[in-house]
Amino acid sequence: MHEGVTAALFRPVRTRNAFEETVERLLQAVRLGVAAPGERLPAERDLAARLGVSRVTLREAIRALADAGYVKSRRGRYGGTFVAESLPAAAPREAPAADLEDVLTLRHVLESGAAEAAAARALTPADRQTLTAALLEASCVDTDELEYRRRDSRLHLAIAEAAGAPSLTTAVADVRTRVNELLDAIPLLSANIEHSNAQHRAVVDAILAGDAPAARRAMAEHLDGTAALLRGFLSHA
């Protein structure tokens, strides 16, 4: 691997979405050919140090990429993590990279704003019950991909509805449809589900507490994690 390019790709990630950004960095290295098919990735300790993540987080990311067919782990004296000889075909997408960024930017503006607006509003008991129920529902699925997407979508729409602006809810529904089309093209990663559930709780807790800045920050962090995975899997070299 070219050391200069490797250093640029394997720079420290932001810790709030460490797993998702680690997956993105590793995918970038593979897709750009910095780590060629059959080539061994840097040693786990070295790679974790470069990325600024724990070895547990790094192992979760490597496991996710192994499950998706991008890398293989070998044991023994000459073991380690190697880029797969034959990489999965890039997920089929008609939209160019600019459209991916368009969707992610629009979603960030709409949904972080919706969370902030919901927290700033005097919620009714019905609003609170709906948010709490949607959060619980979204947290109870971890293997059924289609059902998880549905429940995740319903939670995000419930947050938009809590903002009390029907036009905003419609806009969030529209962008969520576009996002789901992208999410359907990438693997559902168990570590990401666990992380998303924790972030969902942080968003809803901030809204119920009436802390608008915290709600906006929590939603922005959550969206950044999803965006990192989408860029990693769907961006083409």
UniProtKB/TrEMBL annotation:
Pfam families: FCD, GntR. This is GntR family transcriptional regulator. It comes from the Bacteria. GO terms for molecular function: DNA binding; DNA-binding transcription factor activity. InterPro entries: GntR_C (IPR011711), TF_FadR/GntR_C (IPR008920), Tscrpt_reg_HTH_GntR (IPR000524), WH-like_DNA-bd_sf (IPR036388), WH_DNA-bd_sf (IPR036390). Keywords: DNA-binding, Transcription, Transcription regulation. Residues 16-86 form the HTH gntR-type domain. The keyword Transcription regulation applies. Transmembrane segments: none annotated.
